[in-house]
Amino acid sequence: MEQRFALDGGVGALSVREEGPRASIAAERPDDGRGLYKAYLRGRGGSVLLGTMTPENGRLLVRRTFSLDELRRRGAWPVLGGAAEMAFSFRGEETPPQGWVWEEGDGLELGERTLRQSASRLGRILCRREGEELTLACPFEPEREFPFPELFCLGRIEGFGGRRFVLFSFDRRGRPILRET
Predict the structure, then answer these.
(1) How remote is the C-alpha of 141 from its chain's centroid?
(2) What is the reported pLDDT for 36?
(3) In the 8-state DSSP scheme, what is residue 155?
(4) 20 and 43 in contact (C-beta within 8 Å)?
(5) Closest by alpha carbon to 62, among 70, 72, 51?
(6) In sequence order, which residues have a C-beta less than 8 Å from that of residue 95 and are 6 or more positions away?
(7) 181 pLDDT exceeds 70?
(8) Rounded to an integer, what distance in angstroms lies between the CA atom of residue 145 and that of residue 122?
């Protein structure tokens, strides 16, 4: 039996076929020419690196076979989905940290109109999806307008990649989540 999943961000697909005690996995996405991508398989308890995607007929692909026991040990079985993340940019673009992807703010599905408007003004935003939760990391620069001013009290500042970001978390309906500090 084969299962198909959309990769995080909706760009690309993951197929998983159980073959006795093993699983054959293939991940693919369009070759946008921007860089090298690594693909991941995700389960409830963890993720597994599938490898670097290679060009084939205008697409980027990676195929792997794992034992079901190995995937279970690593928390990736049963499969819940997958991701393709840029690991190296050909254009000198900033490579996102592990587990994050750059997305355009105007494409985010947030619950309130004012939040969607704020996101569209921000341009590129770092996004991380874990289960039904979306976390956004907006570059934080004190001299610039605060991202999502309507959520000022819910933002938390963290640093990674030598920069500071304001993080906001949202549930599956795009509603802000209050985090205790």
Answers:
(1) 23
(2) 86
(3) -
(4) no
(5) 51
(6) 35, 86, 87, 88, 89
(7) no
(8) 10
**How many whole angstroms separate alpha carbon 76 and alpha carbon 173?**
25
Distance from C-alpha of 25 to C-alpha of 2, rounded to nearest angstrom: 9
The pLDDT tens digits for 98-115 are 788 888 887 788 888 888
**Mean pLDDT along residues 129-149:** 84
The β-bridge partners of 64 are 25
CA distance 51 to 63: 8
Distance from the first to the final alpha carbon of the chain: 44
**DSSP codes of every residue in 60-113:** EEEEEEEEHHHHHHTT--SEEEEEEEEEEESS-PPPPPTT-EEEEGGG---SSH
Q: pLDDT-based confidence at 91, cuts 50/70/90?
A: low
Global pTM exceeds 0.90: no
